[in-house]
Model the fold of this input.
Amino acid sequence: MYVSKVSPRGQIVIPKYFRDRLAIKSYSKVVFSEDEGRLIITVLPADPIAGARGILKKSLEPLLELMKKNREEEIAYEKKHSRE
Done:
């Protein structure tokens, strides 16, 4: 297990083991997402065209579930704030 501290500015250090394993270099871009209280960091490919190859072969089910959840949250928010 690797542990990092969060700086006062919200910064963390990605341990060298993961930087090497995932080929994270200086100025690499990452995407942050959250799933059931877990922070997920996904490294974006340096070449987005190469990274997108095969994307349509994957299931779209997780994306559809996320879109449904977001829409339900939007509807709940709209209902709550339309009464005010």
About this structure: The chain is about 40% helix and 15% strand.
